[in-house]
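Chain A, query sequence.
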Amino acid sequence: MSDCGDPEQDEARLREQWEAHFELQREEEDMTTDPDTDRGLYGKYRVEKVNGKPIGECFVLEASDPFAVDALRAYAESCVEQFTPLAADLFDMADRWQESQS
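Chain A, predicted structure.
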């Protein structure tokens, strides 16, 4: 007896995967052209740890964002006492981002 599945179910499953893939592509294309000025917080990025494990809720800053430099500096100032090396790296990053925006 063959282990082949039902061809109609296989076709339906592949069609569903294909449609999901292209729907995700359309959403990603919309995000790259969306100026985001009329939107609040929403899922724009997929973030995971380097080891591949998922993380909880997070907020992504991009170097090109005009508000990112101040946000980096504020975070660095808030953690400088407990995480001095991290704060130093964040201050350096903020300086680089500010220079790239000039």
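The longest helix spans residues 7-33. The chain has one domain: 7-101.
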